[in-house]
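Cross-posting from the modeling subforum.

Setting up a comparison between two proteins and wanted a second pair of eyes on the formatting. Protein 1 (sequence, then structure tokens):
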Amino acid sequence: MNRKDLEPASSPAAAYGERLRTLRDERGWTQDELAVRMGYSGTHISAVETGRRSPTPRFSHSADKAFGTGNLFERRGQSVRNTSLLEGFPEYLALEVKAVEIRLFELGIIHGLLQTPAYAEAITRGSVRRGAITEQQAEERLTLLAERQASMERTPSPFIHAVLDESCLMRPVGGARVMADQMDRLLAFAELPTTVLQVAPYSLGERRSFDRPATLVTLTDRKVILYTESAQRGHLERESAFVTPMLTAYHQLQAEALSQAESVAMIQQFRKGAP
């Protein structure tokens, strides 16, 4: 049976799942056997172990009762619920650090992998002011983003093809100085030997083949996995029947978007308007 490798350091949810699996393995229980003891299904146990499903207070209480661990899982479950990460995102992160190619499309804001620290700080602090996340969660997001960006500098580096909607450039974030530095960051990104940067201008209209942000990750075995997000959670799609049409749509987007040279020229024009 194939077992998904767990990355306990990637998030509280991943750490929770790793601990659940470790204790289950120590007792020689299958997921179905643990499920019977906890009053859940084996599929539910699997989803929590791999971070695809967050543990509820009831689930954590049942886990502590089954393993005789006091309130270990109840305490860990509180950490999972307090995280600012979308459900499903930790599972994507485990793939991102292994990717050989990353194709991304972003709307509205610069993609996290391309953000400067000041731009990321402004976006995150805006969420704090709105009450969407806490100060602690903001720090978690910024720390994680820095780690993700650092992981892109591994050897060999993943090839990154980024298509940004023009709205990413038009939206002012953090003030003129922050935007100027962010434009410089994009220009530097475009010069790297393992990257391609394109802008999808407003003029594409109905020819723009994506209407929401999406990321396509290619792994070492050349398997392509799609990651998308809603307001409530992130979603990974592995089935080729669903991934292949999205990969085709991305190729169409590449063809319709401005070339890298044209995109760089547009970004330079935005940069001229900044101090």
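Protein 2 (same layout):
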Amino acid sequence: MARPTRVSPYLAELLSPPPVLEPAPLARRLRVASYNVHRWAGVRGGRQYEPERAFAVVDELGADVLALQEVLRPTEGPDPLRELARRLGFHLAFVVTRLHRRGELGNAVLSRWPLAGAHAIDLSFGRLERRAALAVRVSSGERSLQVAATHLALVDRTRARQVRTLLGHPQLADGPAVLVGDMNAWRPTKASRALDDHFQTRHHNADWPASYPSVRPVLALDRLYARGARIESMETHASEAARRGSDHLPIVATIELEEA
């Protein structure tokens, strides 16, 4: 079997739901979630392909903005990501990180409110790992929220460079912003300390809700950082469905945007 072609990350989808009603303005308080869906392969991974398991978990979250990692859009057959956006009635953006033997693999953001812009950020600084971030601006009414959704590298040195790139990106330069996703961080490192200094928040693993592995979580790999917004609460969603839906549990945070 031929190996997948190496590509630079690219924006592959920007989709809005059919207009039904005029959307309400962006709320000052909203729920933001992050979920590594493990290529729709459930907790076991491998050749399993069960998007419905992850769909059931997303239905439980009640999120207003949802960041997904390890999203597989298959070359053949229905597209689970579009189906999920249709079910939720949400706006969708998707960035391809690499080509998988079964299709495109990358990061997605789904939002109750319109996406005023979407950008692919290449974070592939190591030779072995293809990584990227998806930066969007959620906007409606007079409020907006910058969202950078990512899945960082396993290697500390590469992850630190990725964090520096994200923190210097214009998408996080002004207004309320969140950086969310699978940070692959389980101990204090240069990368986590840089995030600490920028967002003035915690980094020790014990202070974050553990999300991995889903069957018995001990590592806080999935995190959300905020600036210009207060994190009121952050927790893992540890339902029975979530323990079967992926090898990660989703995290859900309630944030309150600061007044301009």
